Amino acid sequence: MHSVVCIKQVPDSAQIRVHPVTNTIMRQGVPAIINPYDLFALEEALRLKDRFGGKVTVITMGPPQAEVALRKALSFGADDAILVTDKSFAGADTLATSYALAATIRQIAKESPVDMVFTGKQTIDGDTAQVGPGIAKRMDLQLLTYVSRIVSVDQDKREIVVERRAEGGVQVLKTSLPCLITMLEGSNQMRFGTMPDMFRAARYEMKFWDKTAAGIEDVTKIGLKGSPTVVNKVFTPSPRSEKAEMIAVEGGSPADVAVALLAKMAARFPLVEKELAKRA
Amino acid sequence: MEKFDVIVVGAGPSGNAAAYTLAKAGLSVLQLERGEAAGSKNVQGAILYSDALEKVIPNFRDDAPLERHIIEQRMWVLDDESFIGTHFRSDDFNKPPYNRYTIIRAKFDKWFSKKVQEAGALIISETTVKELLRDKSGKVVGVETDRADGKVYADVVIMADGVNSTLARKAGFRPELDPKHVALAVKEIHFMPRETVEQRFNIKDDEGVVIEMLGKITQGMMGTGFLYTNSDSISIGVGCMLSDFMEQKLTPYDLLEQMKRHPSIQPLIQGGEMKEYTAHLIPEGGYHAIPRVYGDGWMIVGDSGMFVNAVHREGSNLAMTTGRMAAETIIELHRAGKPMSEANLALYKERLDDSFVMKDLKKYKDMPDIFHSNNQFFTTYPELLSRSAYTMLKVDGVDKLTKEKEIFASFKERRSLFGLLGDAFKLWRAFR
Ligand SMILES: Cc1cc2nc3c(=O)[nH]c(=O)nc-3n(C[C@H](O)[C@H](O)[C@H](O)COP(=O)(O)OP(=O)(O)OC[C@H]3O[C@@H](n4cnc5c(N)ncnc54)[C@H](O)[C@@H]3O)c2cc1C
Predict the structure, then answer these.
(1) What is the ipTM for the molecules in this complex?
(2) Domain holding A176: CATH number?
(3) For the whole model, what pTM was predicted?
(4) Which residue of B has its CA nearest to A75?
(5) Which of A107, B195, B343, B424 has its CA 20 to 30 A from that of B19?
């Protein structure tokens, strides 16, 4: 079982603050982390390896600093890591990113066939949830999004059964390998790597692939050129102007408070009053 | 089985200085740090003393993240409304190479760690050392970490694990921390535009100012406050003996909040955005609190060995110096093919005794006790001092001689003549 896990290094949004005076994002000292959703994908891939053997390859497309994220993934137990990095990737949107990653995975598969591709549900800095499906489409893989559990894998029949969160319930889906899974948060918990994993990660000779190594032929499909998405404006929504009102009735019983509330609502929404009057 | 020449536990200034020096000399070094990365547990602004770092990395100024070099030192004694103090500013401090810098530890430690890595040490973070591994004779032969298959071996283990040093305590190399020997300090960083910092402190370019504070701000507890200028932020903090906090049932946070409202301090930090809030222990027991710092297969450096000069607020420089000296001792033994036995490692202590580290600590050996049992230094005196200044400076038709007499009387009233003389004598002896 060979799984490829796509991860992204993102700024730790929990630690980003907006400057109260200038209103700009204060990036100073904000640590870079592995996109938290990707950790569920990585852990699930590691569990497959625990159950069925094989290996886990982690990849990321990003700047050279993203090496830290890959090394971290190795320390959790991933076997191989590839940093796909090239100046021409700069400015990529989800379309261009999924193109580059799909090319990379094809390249990886040439050496060792890939059974599963994992991504997180989405990233915390882009929130699009498009890269996983984009890769699946380009590689013609079965696509399973928002997977909460892998129920079973039949390696001989090359079939997989998963649970998937859907509106109003849980779907149990069966499909054939190879497939791409986007993992739902909370579906597992990242392990604490062993000491030998830590040593391996620290000593691992990182693989850096430029666009040629990643097997990218059409340069019009990567980076800014390959990105039709235009971000027009980024703004913080202003807080809603309505204010909550506390309704307190001095010494009042719950019933008194309820009456006061109804009176308030009636005054504000005449239709409600009419309707209530009709029913009374 | 993983085996190294040396394992260094901790990636603060002492561990980094040790690991760097060892790796640079070609020894195989494993450095273990429990934080996410070097410096991640250390988010404070601080003063860096060049000399100690220079002796480890001579050209550190080329790329180290330094905030400002200090050209002015202020000493303030505060009561509730006022301060009286001295400012020493000199253009001599503007002549490179500069002697002291303000730094932000998170950035600085990260830089230092990169240097350690480039020198060839293997750094593994997010890994806590749980205990020392010892052979039948009791010699330390490695460490056990909190990870599965966590045993790692080495000829010698350097404990650079900071003031708490659970390792040394567990192994029985060091007694439990005495609350009278540690200060608890809190520190914040307030970000504001560079120009604002420069205007408020009358500085330009990379010039910086330090204010050391003493007096009512610590509410009678033994301690000091401090304020430093960084490039586009100000570090402010206060520290008092842990035992005092326990007795007075005050939290360091309350103390800092009050200090920030002092009319002389508030305008300096006004409008800044508070970024970091950290509380940390500082070993301030001084000379008498220093434990045994070496043994069969082990050494202690930095805060873990209580190497802090509280009187001069020097810690990181002692940490780096002890780290370097431990490393140099090991290198010498390693090259001579000698084992890391207690007898051989005694060389480390000899080096320490011979350096400013032990000499300075010895000089102030009685300071902690004096301040501890004489809290008038932190309460009565500051108040009296500023009242005296106020009396002398106010022009109100009273002749100066009468004023002097009044001032002297107020000192005597609050503290007997014997008390005053006694205090002066104690201080003189301690500073001698
Ligand atoms: C508020 C405050 C202000 C200060 N200001 C100054 C100043 O301006 N100038 C100055 O020179 N000094 C200052 N000091 C003192 C200075 O910070 C310390 O003396 C110095 O950091 C000591 O370095 P160290 O390497 O010994 O310990 P630390 O810097 O404490 O480093 C110890 C490291 O070991 C790690 N560790 C601990 N236990 C384990 C374990 N079991 N396994 C793995 N890793 C472990 C910790 O995570 C930590 O990274 C200040 C201290 C405080 C608290």
Answers:
(1) 0.83
(2) 3.40.50.620
(3) 0.85
(4) B124
(5) B343
